Amino acid sequence: MTGKPRENCPVMHATNAMGDQWSILILREFFLEGPRRFQDLQDVLEASPNTLSARLKKLEGAGILERRQYSKNPPRAEYHLTEAGEALRPVIRALHAWGSSFAPGG
Amino acid sequence: MTGKPRENCPVMHATNAMGDQWSILILREFFLEGPRRFQDLQDVLEASPNTLSARLKKLEGAGILERRQYSKNPPRAEYHLTEAGEALRPVIRALHAWGSSFAPGG
DNA sequence: CGGTATCCTCGATGATACTG
DNA sequence: CAGTATCATCGAGGATACCG
Lengths: 106, 106
Known about the structure:
- The structure is a homodimer of 106-residue chains.
- Helix content of chain A is 56%, strand content 14%.
- The relative contact order of chain A is 0.14.
- Chain A has one domain: Arc Repressor Mutant, subunit A.
- With 106 residues, chain A is an alpha+beta fold.
- Chain A contains six helices and two strands.
- The structure holds a DNA duplex (20 and 20 nucleotides).
């Protein structure tokens, strides 16, 4: 106790899970394209593999993404939005709407 | 050109402006409480003054907050949401809803 | 009160090479 | 293809002192 006044705020749970530069952009790909593979994300986002790996693991740990492995050789894995992940759609939509209205030159 | 495939995405404008741990939490205070002073934010968020100062300047530079100085001695300044800032309310609301539904133990 | 100045630490990210 | 390993950089953030 005697911690930060808003330490149990629901908004903070969200920022803890996605409060970095990449997570939101990663999630955007899932909402646009559906289940994605590692290479898909790397191609479109141009994040280095270790960075991408770290973000995916964190999102997986937060229960937002789920990794499914379909074969080991050749390796094939897909990441899917969980129920909690799907529930983030309104967040992305709201961010997109805001970015469209108030972008530089928008 | 030949940059990142989604470099002009509206979502990225949003993450560039608020893609850190504090910005969202700062904005939350404005939606909850209205115009805020430096000390108000420091008390409730418990961010160090230099960090808070940096975040406020960045949000101001992004056109989300506006600083109004009412007196110089004693100093009194207030930060207000701009129109672009007010337009972020749906984002915070969506994050809050998500955090409430999918919080650990929620 | 509303910050700025310093110094410090750590995580986020990038570049590159490598592996099963 | 789907990552891991390694090394380096840079900004975010914290602690503290200080200033007008």
